[in-house]
Amino acid sequence: xxxxxxxxxxxxxxxxxxxxxxxxxxxxxxxxxxxxxxxxxxxxxxxxxxxxxxxxxxxxxxxxxxxxxxxxxxxxxxxxxxxxxxxxxxxxxxxxxxxxxxxxxxxxxxxxxxxxxxxxxxxxxxxxxxxxxxxxxxxxxxxxxxxxxxx
Length: 151
Fold this sequence. Notes:
- This protein is α+β, with helices and mostly antiparallel strands and 151 residues long.
- It has helices at 103-114, 125-142, and strands at residues 9-16, 22-31, 35-42, 51-55, 58-62, 71-79, 82-89.
- The longest helix is centred in the last third of the chain and has 18 residues, at 125-142.
């Protein structure tokens, strides 16, 4: 997870379609020490599909498409209006990377199973459960209930 801890508060402003599916949502996660994360997703409009991680001395930009990014920039601020940037490119190993966005996760899980491990070190059970807890809170706040969760 971004801050290695569960957020103190989850706030959402989302839209469900006539079938009850979430089609647009803006989510703010508030953590201790005035740290925030914002997430926006939509099936209604085209979004930038980038990730920006901002801090007191600069930011990290994961270029579009963020779910299969091949470019990351680190932008350092040395004062008002003064920035320097360094971009790293890392090409995907296959030409159809847009369709293989879970390549590394799949490889890590396969390796863990073959090694008789209970979880992949890159994707721990605790992290997965933490993400699911956040997703449960988001769904609850916007009124999204899947049929399997209705009981």
